[in-house]
């Protein structure tokens, strides 16, 4: 009987322990279930909330609106800039959602221009409009700036197209406050180098040669210049890597490009001209390029005479070594490409013949022989 009592007590203890463990297991499972359910619910709420947020952000701002909103997309604008402009204009709800929508759908090729949009437009309509360049306004006029033009000539073109006085245009283009504002707006293109005392015109060489459409009758000078600088920025950005390799600032790039532009003819290899300039700079020789003398004189001549070479100016490359203080004209892409990738030569001289050919020489004696053969003494 005593033994039996001991066994019954032991079994009872084991049973109670087993029941206790089962209860603990149930409690743990219950806690785990509650936590899992809570996390799942939280995930669903976050996902669902995010989905609803994005879904709402992709819908029209106001489906019933007939309001017309003018949106100006400058040349060279990226997706981030365009997205923010659309949000700021009230055409879309959220710039970030629009940007990710564009990138997720691999939408590219947005075109610059002035668009008349509505808050009722869908995302698809907005994207289609930007891709096809469907502006709601017709082009009122265009301004064409040829390669090799100087700021005074560009001011004349702007004045004629906008029915302004050329002197008034030049006055604003050289206004220090106006220039400071542009430098602040384009810090990666414009710099304080433009304001050096030796600079003749700060914006010389910075207004890229191209045809610019305008959609209003009387755009301000600032609007016109801004469109041109947008283009300059987009072009320069393509050569950032090569500029870094050659340790060129934007100012230096546009300066040497302008010298190449002014010396080049249709028949010449601009890369060879660039090589001559770089070779002379490396050797500590003055560039001795005639267009800089004409720029210093402030006049156009068919030929430069020996007396002209004595003009006292920091732009006179017969008297000064190195580059001119700044560009002497605007340069096209072909001259910019030559500036960042000159040919590998030993040439130190080149001579433009009356026929438009350019002859290259390694020595001064060789150069003088060609000069006697092709150019009569002034």
In short:
Helix content is 52%, strand content 7%. With 378 residues, it is mainly α.
Describe what you observe in this structure:
- It is found in: Cell membrane.
- By secondary structure, the chain is mainly α.
- The chain is 52% helix and 7% strand.
- The longest helix has 56 residues, at 2-57.
- It is elongated.
- The termini are far apart.
Task: Please tag this protein with its features.
378 residues; mainly alpha; Dna Ligase, domain 1; 52% helix; elongated; lytic endotransglycosylase activity; membrane; transmembrane; lyase; Endolytic murein transglycosylase
Strand order of the largest sheet: 1-2
SS-based class: mainly alpha
Q: Termini, distance in Å?
A: 143 Å
Count of structural domains = 4
Main beta-sheet annotation: 2 strands, antiparallel
Order of helices and strands: HEHHEHEHHHEHHHHHHEEH
Write down how many β-strands occur, each being a DSSP E stretch of 2 or more residues: 6
Shape: elongated
Helix content: 40-55%
* Assembly level: single chain
Walk me through the topology.
Blueprint: H1 2-57, E1 69-73, H2 79-89, H3 95-104, E2 113-117, H4 123-132, E3 141-144, H5 151-162, H6 166-173, H7 176-185, E4 211-214, H8 221-237, H9 240-246, H10 250-263, H11 270-283, H12 290-297, H13 333-340, E5 349-352, E6 358-361, H14 364-374
Helix pairs in contact: 2-3, 5-6, 10-11, 10-13, 11-13
EC number: 4.2.2.29
Transmembrane segments: 31-54
Protein name: Endolytic murein transglycosylase
